[in-house]
Design brief:
292 residues; Arc Repressor Mutant, subunit A; Phosphorylase Kinase, domain 1; Transferase(Phosphotransferase), domain 1
Amino acid sequence: MPNLGLIYRSLNEDDFKVLRAMERLSKRRDFIPLEDIVRETRIYEEKASLVLHKLHKLKLVKSALTGPSRSFRLTYLALDMLALKSLVDQNIVSAIGDKVGVGKESDLYKAMSPSGEALIIKFLRIGRSSFRRTRLLRSWAQSPTTTWFEQSKAAAEREYKALVDLYSNKANVPRPYGFNRHATVMEFIDGVELYRRPTLRDPWKVLEQIFETLRIAYSKVGIVHGDLSEYNIIVSKNDERPYIIDWPQFVYKEEPNALPLLSRDVKYILRFFGKVYGVGGDPGEVVKYITS
């Protein structure tokens, strides 16, 4: 498992210059010839080759022979470094720690703000294996020219903006701090994922708070989570407040699939609480409450 902090500290300005140039050029092609990188960076070829050799050893680029010359492609790890550099430059993040979680399409890292607050950096990983499915399911990824990097960037921006609106309306979501490229920064919640079935003093109150957040999302922000389950709810150890996470796939309530997705979210949560904690309710009545 790569240590992002160590890799970041090993990079110098020439390394970032090459990475930024490759990011710009990757909008036109996947693998970028060496001569194009030299032209874009205005670094002479021998030095550019040395930089690319270093980046290849760090697994920030992949290399392939395309015709008479060698070409290079960015990896997600390179995008991590570019995002982290911008977040540091913006004084949002001052340090990054270990990986603390892995989602279907993301990696989570513990981090720290310049003022010492505990943070989470969520790096979106919308990969090639799910690329076609992503386009089918997400209206914001319909363009045939949208790359897997661009999808991850769009998802991070969507999640950040959703968190800002939700948090400002007092929904139970982590406080957002910023985003850059495919990375969203939010507060660290000292809690337990609901799927681990933590012991709850008042499961009914926790369930009510989950539905209240869904109500705020629908009535005040105008969105539906669309993929809610016990896997994206964190229960605070301090006060048993349930925080709903993972918002990039939200849909607007005006979209035709919004109500079916909301109904599915409600049914999943009611089924889990009924099975594990013995509390529940009528899905139709809950949806009516959320949308009223």
